[in-house]
């Protein structure tokens, strides 16, 4: 059950902290005045990106291997963005289900990575190392992005403003 404290975690951080976080998110999106994009960016981080990165960090910190990726593709266009589960369209080579053709470079790279992970326990890119640059794979994108590694979490103001632990994680 979600408590009032959890619902208002950002508000309770204070107006100054909230304003800083809002401005930091504005620097990440194409149209800084688009409230829908701001909300989407914040909720994507709160629900998926930050917990996934924290889980990878914890797994690596406990001596295990974790492989981290970020979907940079928008298979249904910018209106839908990189929605939850969109990566499965890449995993199972089913972009055609949403009317998109699977580019040849994505089939070989992304579907191949998942097949390798299932067969060997490694998708073919380095395990997540929290302090390393280029510690995560970008999934999707153009042929020029093939095998592109990115750093998660990104070194920007948004990352520094997120609390170390969210109220519901305590």
From TrEMBL:
Domain Carboxylesterase type B intervals: 13-124
Cross-referenced Pfam families: COesterase
Q: Give the residue range of the signal peptide.
A: none
Gene3D superfamilies with a match to the protein in the record: alpha/beta hydrolase (3.40.50.1820)
User: What name does this protein carry?
Assistant: Carboxylesterase type B domain-containing protein
From which organism does this entry originate?
A: Streptomyces variegatus
